[in-house]
Specification:
221 residues, alpha/beta, two-stranded antiparallel sheet, 9 helices, globular
């Protein structure tokens, strides 16, 4: 096999978790007397970490309002964490064939590289019985968030595998740019949280429609 290890994004790649975040965000906005937002908007906004999701919710837009006060943002982020902690994993589910795909690489070192906070990541993985599949987990509060290459390089270090011997699997512009920055080949999946971007514009090495499509790519020699 050409690759010695695999890095996986979490939300939008392995797990459809937008329902949990949608509910937590709207509970937060309601508490703060802000208009609630649609499921479709939340699906477009996820992928850059909790802080950015909440700021987008307060702004009602993908672009964070320049008028948004730091105090309000801080309060909202803390309230979101309370709600999300109660909801995480409650409505989330694996995308089709994820369990089969991960099992196909049972003997290959694997890591999660996510922008989600560690506490929520561990709880979500545990609820969906995914933890045992991974040798290390790099989260959004461990280092810089994607699209920085830093979390991918940290995962390579923790796996003990040179970055150029890894491949990244993700669903977003941030995953692609992070992999390119780390000089790691990347498989982009079309079904996740792409924030409205056409992922082929970012020139991933591979673009797939389903999770099982990654198997022949990773198994190539």
């Amino acid at each position: 096999m050409r690759f010695e290890g695999i890095l996986f994004d979490l939300d939008g790649t392995l797990v459809d978790s937008v329902e949990d975040m949608y509910m937590a965000l709207n509970l937060t906005l309601s508490e703060l007397a802000h208009p609630i937002v649609s499921h479709a908007l939340v699906r477009e906004w996820v992928g850059n970490g909790i802080d950015m999701l909440v700021k987008r919710g307060l702004s009602g837009s993908h672009e964070v309002s320049e008028a948004l006060s730091e105090g309000l943002a801080h309060t909202a982020i803390e309230r979101f964490k309370v709600h999300y902690d109660e909801l995480v994993g409650q409505y989330a589910g694996l995308y089709p064939h994820v369990e089969t795909g991960l099992s196909a690489f049972a003997t290959v070192p694997k890591a999660i590289v996510t922008n989600k906070n560690r506490a929520f990541t561990l709880k979500l993985l545990d609820k969906l019985n995914l933890t045992s599949h991974f040798d290390c987990i790099v989260c959004g509060d461990d280092t810089d968030k994607k699209p920085s290459p830093a979390p991918l390089l940290l995962a390579a270090e923790r796996l003990g595998i040179p970055a150029n011997k890894l491949i990244m699997v993700g669903d977003s512009k941030s995953d692609i740019l992070a992999a390119q920055g780390a000089k790691i080949p990347v498989i982009a999946l079309n079904y996740g949280y792409n924030q409205g971007f056409d992922l082929k514009e970012f020139n991933p090495q591979y673009l797939c429609d389903g999770f099982l499509d990654i198997i022949p790519i990773i198994n190539q020699r």
